[in-house]
Amino acid sequence: MNIITQRCLTVILLLFATVGFSQEKYTLSGTISDMSSSETLIGATVYIVETQTAISTNEYGFFSISLPEGTYTIEISYVSFSTITETVNLNQNIRKNYELSSSSQELSEIVISDNQPKANIKKPEMSVNKLSVQEIKKMPVVMGEVDVLKSILTLPGVTNAGEGSSGFNVRGGAADQNLILLDEATIFNSSHLFGFFSVFNSDAIKDLKLYKGGIPARYGGRLSSVLDIYQKEGNKNEFHMNGGIGAISSRLLAEGPLVKGKGSFLIGGRASYAHLFLKLSDNDNSAYFYDLNTKLSYQLNENNNLYLSGYFGRDLFDISNSFNNVYGNTVLNLRWNHLFNEKLFSNASLIYSDYYYGLELGFVGFTWESGIKNYNFKYDFKNYISDKFKLNYGVNAVYYDFNPGTIKPIDETSTVNPDQLDRKYAFEPAAYIEAEHELTDNITVSYGLRYSMFYRMGQQEVALYANDQPVVFNDELKIYEKGEITGTEYYSSGKTIADFSNLEPRAGVSFKLDDNQSIKASYNRMAQYLHLISNTASPTPLDIWTPSGKYIKPQLLDQVALGYFRNFKNNEYSLEAETFYKKVKNRIDYIDGADLIANNNIEQVILNGKARSYGLELLFRKNTGKLTGWVSYTLSRSEQQTPGRTPDETGINNGGWYLSGYDKLHNLSVTGSYEYNNKWSFGAIFALQSGKPVTYPNGQYVYGDLVIPSYGLRNENRVPAYHHLDVSATYTPKPDKKKGWQGEWVFSIYNLYNRMNAASINFRQNEDTGANEAVRLSIFGIIPSVTYNFKF
């Protein structure tokens, strides 16, 4: 090698070393929390001014960003908190925790308020609504209590399941297609008092996020949506209590440090007592609920945190002591957060969830119990590889224990024999990986893949049917009937009855037109292995969860969405417009006359079909000023099709498409809050929805002494349109008081103009005139209330 070659190689090596040195990157990481309580903040924004890069904290308040060596201006912001700025000289890895103060308190830092929307425009996340507790508490209050479910019902694409019904529907999906998580634990029924209250105590809630589409790969097991809710950790610095005393219910929550600055506890309870007033009026009917929220947190060291959280709730409803209904959730979650380094964060969870449903029918002399339990292990990792590339991956495994029904006689005089329907067991493991990748300054993509498996396990006797058909078609009567059981096959514990596996790809893209507007698109495939068998026409619906198996296939969804997002006047106004289309395979429906109670072979009344829904969603917000709020509107269609399995079978509705029970063609919601002064604020919510589809009789015939109605096509009729107006006024006597006892009065009226919305329409023959008549069943009319809220 000559001297010239050696010198050239030396120069090249020096150039590479110089480039490598100039491109050296360091990581800024840490947590963001509330200054007053040390409560970590989910979704707080870290904005780098020089690079115009924004990132958000994860579910535990942690953030991490890698940048080339240099000096940067960092802006930290969160809704209802004052934004702070800081100059950081990044010449090494820096771990720093930030504390934000409520915007109502005075700060010495510079306040910046116009950068947070840039992260929302740029992120590929769409079909997602986020609400912090601070935002929810600014919403109009009904019955004197902030309600999480009432807040999401004001969003586009979300409707209530009906007056007197539990749950909610998202983009034309069924209530059982919503995955509802409280601190990662599954909640199987989200409502108290037939949907009038939610099971979530707003005093104990820190943050919530509703995914309607573009669902990340880390979530699975449901088709329509994910409602992800996290409880507060508790105040690590001081002991505090808050609560409310109302005409219908009251609540109390206590929080404080276990070890100051390191550990905290939270315990909160609620209970309703309106049934006590019913007793005073010689009314033997009653309905009430109670629940309990708990959480413990402890910081072992800078890199390890432990959390133990739980929830217990019960609803009780009885009619003259002849009918008693009890149902509720119990969940428990032990979590361990571990920080491997400034770029790799992990969370391991052990979760227990139990949903119980019980009936006592005194007039027939027996009790009925059913439920579902699951045991879940999750291990999730978040890898902040660079400021433009983030990776999430993990595994989880769920074991299910289903109790379809336990029947017991009330006493020895009962003629009912005890019976235990076959318990069912299943195992659902899954693994996922997902990435968020900033390709250019204007294009950001997210993509991921989930691989889910499902094993229907013994120990159980499985019925066998002629031609392997649990449902047969009677060609003479043109009706479906239960298939003939030709024998049984026993599967012992650990044996697999049926197994399924599915690849579930997810993808999203955001194209930023400028700092204030973007176009986004998403696609996701989801698999759901659980099915809710429910008589939704009843005010107290029978809830029986059953797994996929030999005769019931898992539901599969494909959904695409396209949206336009824009901020106006420095985020004073914002507009979100989305259109979506989704289709579902293996959506079950029931044969006419299906019996759901005490049916040990539920597959005998089920037909497999498909579903589809599509629509347009609009959301216009006013974000600042004395008057704030939003208008949301959804135009959508939700349909099902259950064709015949052979050319001779009619299927349902002659094999054509028919409206699902969740179809709401029009859905309008107007939400407004007005701060008159620092003592008085007012709020209102107006809701208008198309009536839900139902099947009315179209004639009748006489058989002996019986008048028997005949019915037309399924769901070709509707109940009357659903609408009501709720108003509230909040009075704070001493608004400037920040310590000691602080109180406020909330005056509210639910259903101001006393609209008697139809929970159902029943048809009967008038005993006096003999004429046929339709009778509307309404659950709630106008309900005024007053509540006193306090904290100290």
TrEMBL record:
Gene3D superfamilies: Carboxypeptidase-like, regulatory domain (2.60.40.1120), TonB-dependent receptor, beta-barrel domain (2.40.170.20), TonB-dependent receptor, plug domain (2.170.130.10). Residues 126-222 form the TonB-dependent receptor plug domain. It is found in: Cell outer membrane. Keywords: Cell outer membrane, Membrane, Receptor, Signal, Transmembrane, Transmembrane beta strand, Transport. Coiled coil: none annotated. InterPro entries: Beta-barrel_TonB_sf, CarboxyPept-like_regulatory, Plug_dom, Plug_dom_sf, TonB-dep_rcpt-like. It comes from the Bacteria. It is a multi-pass membrane protein. PANTHER family: HEMOGLOBIN AND HEMOGLOBIN-HAPTOGLOBIN-BINDING PROTEIN 1-RELATED, TONB-DEPENDENT OUTER MEMBRANE RECEPTOR. Belongs to the TonB-dependent receptor family. This is TonB-dependent receptor. The lineage of its organism: Bacteria, Pseudomonadati, Bacteroidota, Flavobacteriia, Flavobacteriales.
